[in-house]
Specification:
253 residues, alpha/beta, six-stranded mixed sheet, 8 helices, 46% helix
Length: 253
Amino acid sequence: MTQQQRRAYLIRMLFEERGERFRLPEGEEEQKRLLRALFNVREPRPASPEFLKVQDAWLQEEIASRGITRDVDIVPVRGRLCLWQGDIVTLACGAVVNAANRAMLGCFHPNHGCIDNAIHTFAGVQLRLACASVMKGAYARTGEAILTPAFNLPADFVIHAVGPELHGPLAPEHERLLAATYVACFERAAERRVRSLAFCCISTGVFRFPPRRAAEIAVATAEKQLERYPWMEKVIFNVFKDSDAAIYQRLLG
């Protein structure tokens, strides 16, 4: 199967699963957006071995076409702390951290730009089912984290973490909860002896935590946690925006 044939197959099967009439847009980008939207709204449920085989082949080729970055090629800038600006779904490392919501099932908004949406899209439908198996219908508390396989991502694991959400001014409790979120991620990573851990900018997007203060807490907490885990080789702060890169550059020197 070509990538085009795989994409058409997946779209058709997802429409059939929903009991809806199959329609395939003409353009490649339109097809990709439709497929991502269908992934995004799919409830956590098993999929057939044939579907997973085609899905996995399509996702792995899509990720490879973006260019995979390996943790061994990212050089620490201070101690074991690294800064890397890029797409976290292309990062091959021990574990990547996903900024999740309390349901821990991924983003259900079609084609939303959050990291939760991207990670669930490119890991495949298996990830939502794995999260549901852990959560069993419960909701996580702020500051908690769970670990799952990464499935089609080049990382080994995904750590899903719930950071604090601001509905007003920043308060000391928000800062405490963000630090607790980072600690929980280290604890989940340690359970699997993860040697390289990549953090996104937890809580700074739709959760509205001020980016500079969030970065300060991230760096300070990571340095303290690395004292507990001397076997962990590196912590990677993954940023996507230039403004976040500039903040971490100043903090890490």
